Structure formats: structure tokens, C-alpha cells
Amino acid sequence: MQVTFSAEEREFREEVRAFFRDEYPEDIREKQAQGAELDPEDQVRWQQLLHAKGWAGINWPVEYGGTGWSPVQKYIFATEEANANAPIIIPFGLSMVGPVIYTFGNDEQKQRFLPDILASRVWWCQGYSEPGSGSDLASLKMRAELAGDHFVVNGTKTWTTLGQHADWIFCLARTNTDVARRQEGISFLLVDMKTPGVSVKPIILLDGTHEVNEIHFDNVKVPVDNLVGEEGKGWTYGKVLLQHERTNIAGVARSRYRVRRLRKQVQKSVRGASPLAGDKNYMRRLAAVEVELKSLEYTELRTLAAVASGNAPGPESSILKIKGTEIQQAIDMLYLQASGYYALPYVPDQYAPDFSGETIGEGLETQSALRYFNNRKASIYGGSNEIQKNIIAKHVLGL
Ligand SMILES: Cc1cc2nc3c(=O)[nH]c(=O)nc-3n(C[C@H](O)[C@H](O)[C@H](O)COP(=O)(O)OP(=O)(O)OC[C@H]3O[C@@H](n4cnc5c(N)ncnc54)[C@H](O)[C@@H]3O)c2cc1C
User: Fold this and answer.
1) What's the topology of domain 124-233?
2) Of the four, 33, 304, 368, 377, which is 20 to 30 A from 206 by CA?
């Protein structure tokens, strides 16, 4: 896709490029290049650098410290950020609870929470899913019973990404069971993770990483001041948040970057073998992914334009989520195939950042397998792709 930039936009692009060239810390850049896991401190430091530049709240309204960028500026930023292979900003504060608080929260909540989210002084996690309530989220059982000036919260949240580092969790909890529809009686609560009765239990994934958790709530006292918006309206707020989340998951600029690197790498001969570019079947598969990606770019720009005019992303974000994650996983597969049997063995030591094997282009060959396995999650989290198809059928196509 050719987007024609104005002189101001080209100037902006230069400013963004200069930022990534000069301000992106060398140690984090190196870890990213190696495909090594970032420490929470790295994540915080990176977001704080963006914040210092005024670039943390990319989609936030200016009155709350957002950039006020046009869709084209956001497109430019996302492109340059992906080209620099900069870390993905942890979304739970900036892209999820932040927009819910500035849209539905009261003034006291806005003042109390938004500055810390922008400046990455507080780490948030997302408490939606429960054991037995994932796709069918409205069946959630976490109970929050009003007792004077606080709620008493009991229940379990699961798959809570990076909850082990979190200071706060935002939860959907049932405040009323006497309702006509299951979606009613659910409220949106902000919970300090240090409150007595909150405990975090790790879930170790197939690739050996500790990325997700189960979080238990045992008679946890949550002040009524931490209820966002109206009691019983949490389902509506939670849906808005999910639309932001799904738009975010698409990761178009990153996929473009990965495909471009792959295209370069397949021209090279690795270990004396002929360059993969000579394999017509492989190149056809690569081209098919590129075509899909180009179409998705237009859809993403349309969504960005809608958000810029003050709307939430809407149910169309489900289209971005499905296509974006299908493309990501297709690219994972192309990397895996390009690595051939060098991607096969799961030898944990080989995933160490200092392993000096030959690369196929994006980190180490063995990491293509690691990434392939880890990224199976992309078509599950944020609501599985099957559920997104149901949403599109009902709310976009009106079937
Ligand atoms: C790595 C990872 C990180 C996550 N992080 C978080 C987090 O931080 N916070 C959080 O709250 N949640 C998180 N989740 C949870 C995620 O949102 C759920 O896993 C997801 O919604 C699916 O729910 P489930 O796992 O209960 O699967 P189920 O709902 O049991 O679904 C199982 C399968 O059945 C299919 N299915 C179910 N219902 C239907 C239907 N009606 N029509 C068609 N197909 C259907 C699904 O698509 C899926 O393939 C995470 C999940 C993963 C894997």
C-alpha cells in the first residue's frame, strides 16, 4: 500500500525515526534482536521514555495526556516502532483500563489512576476470564457483595497475563444475581493486588515460560470508590475495552516488518544450501500472506480513522483480530518452514540469548519454533477467533 505523506507527515516521520535511533536503549534493543524475554523493568523503562516524549497515550484524548495524532501519524508511528523492533507496550493499562476509566470513570478516578497509567508507575492486569468462563464470559461467577462502604470479593480469575508483576487488576464481577439477563448485574471493579485475600498462582506454558496466572480472591475488601461507572453496567464497559484490545492485537505493522525481513533472508544461502527464494511453492505462500496483509492495512486505517473521530473501534475490531492473528500465525509458520529441521528440537539451552547459531533472519532458528508455539495463543486470547466470527455474523453482517 502506498500512503502519500504530506510535508508535515514526512517531518513527523523523521522525528519518530530519530527518536527510535537515539532514545531506544541499546540493551533493550539487543534483547529484542536476540528474541530474549524482557524484564518488567525493561518494559517500564521503555514506556517511561515514550511518556517523557509525550508519546505514551497514542490513542488517548489530548485532555488526558494523549498525543492527539491523526490516523496517518499513528500509522507512521506504528510502522517506525515495528521497523525498530521496539518492545510491544504492555496493553493492560494504556490500551485497556485507561480508556475505560477516561470514558466511564468519575473525575476522582481519572485523577487518581490515569497519570500513573501513562507514566507506567503502576502495572495493571486483566481479570476477565475464569475457570469455565472464557468464551462464555457472561457466565462468570466472581462475586462482589456490597457491605457498607466496600464490596467483599470472592472468586478466581485465570489466564491472567503477567499478573505476577501487577500492582492492580481490573475485574468483571457479579454484584447482583437477581437479574433477567446474565450480562446484567456484572460490575467493573479496580482491585489493589496488595489487598489481603488476593493470591497469585503461576501457570507454566508449553514453552516453559511463566506468562499467565490464576488469581484467587478470598473475602477481598474493595472500596466502593473503586467501582467504575454504574453498578451492573460492567458488561457494557468490558465490551468497549475488548474492542480496543482486539484492534491492538492485529499487529499489522509488526507483521509487515517480519515479512520484509523474511523476504530479505530467503535470498541468502544458509549453511551452503540454495537460497529458499528458489523454492516456488514457498515463495507463493509468502506472497499469499503479503496480499492478505496489504488488505488488512486498509481495514486497520479505516478503524484508526473511526477512533480518531471519537468512536470506540466497534465490532469491526473483530475482523482485525481474526485476520491479524491468522496472518501472524501464517508468518510464524513461514519462519518455521524456512528454518527446516533446525527448528525442530526443543532444547531449552538453545533458547538462551547467547546461542550463536546461524539465523534465518529473525533471531535464532530454534526461536522460530518457540515463537510458533507461544503465538498459538493469539487466536485464543482477546476472545477466540471462533467467537469473533460469531460477533461479525451478529453485529457486522446482522445475521
Ligand atoms: C496466553 C493467554 C493469555 C490470556 N490472557 C488473559 C488475561 O490476561 N486476562 C483474561 O481475562 N483472559 C486471558 N486469556 C483468556 C482468553 O480470553 C480465553 O482463553 C478465551 O476467551 C477462550 O476461553 P477459554 O480458554 O475458556 O476456552 P473455551 O471458551 O472453553 O473455548 C474452547 C474452544 O471452543 C470454542 N468455542 C467456545 N464457544 C464457542 C461458540 N459459541 N462458537 C464457536 N466456538 C466456540 C473456542 O473458540 C475454543 O476453540 C488468555 C488466554 C491465553 C491463552
Assistant:
1) Butyryl-CoA Dehydrogenase, subunit A; domain 2 (2.40.110)
2) 33
